[in-house]
Specification:
The chain contains 6 helices and no strands. By secondary structure, the chain is mainly alpha-helical. The protein has one domain. It is elongated, with a radius of gyration of 19 Å. About 20% of the residues are buried.
């Protein structure tokens, strides 16, 4: 009888987690967000989407903590911070991850969302939210939604301008 290799299960978990998360993020960012901004405008739409982002990210973070499963690989990546091995790339990566938390915060907030930013930057794993984590979460939520609101508004404005130019 063949033994199942432990990494196969881990790869399946990561594949499923990353795929489902990416589908949700993709639908949220490229369908719902532009639609709401288009229908409600940049200010009202931005407020509505910030609220919806808050709900989605807090639900995902609660589920992540409840499941106690690293289905996105965040906890695995966090372990690189403590790397003390002989490989130069590992030590350099560890040093950067330790020294530039504000830069990492800004990068993660723009590239991802408040859930991933908070899960990555919090101390410990699957341990809920203290005051520091709430500050990270809310700061990231505001930065990411400000960025996406402007990006969607600019995209919609560009499409409208192009449409008017073509049809006139």
């Amino acid at each position: 009888m063949l033994k199942r290799k432990p990494y196969i299960g881990r790869m399946a978990e990561l594949s499923l987690g990353l795929t489902v998360n990416q589908l949700i993020v993709w639908a949220f960012n490229f369908f719902l967000y532009p639609f709401i901004i288009y229908k409600l405008g940049v200010l009202k739409g931005g407020v509505v989407m910030t609220f919806l982002s808050f709900m989605a990210c807090i639900f995902t973070l609660k589920f992540y903590d409840w499941s106690k499963r690293d289905w996105l690989g965040i906890e695995t990546i966090k372990r690189v911070k403590g790397y003390a091995g002989n490989k130069v790339i590992g030590r350099v990566t560890s040093w950067i991850m330790k020294k530039s938390e504000p830069v990492v915060f800004l990068f993660l907030s723009i590239k991802f969302d408040a859930f991933i930013t908070t899960a990555y930057l919090r101390k410990g794993s699957f341990n809920g939210m203290g005051q520091r984590e709430w500050m990270i979460f809310m700061g990231s939520l505001l930065i990411s939604n400000f960025y996406w609101t402007l990006a969607c508004y600019m995209g919609i404005t560009l499409v409208e301008y192009g449409w008017r130019t073509v049809t006139q």
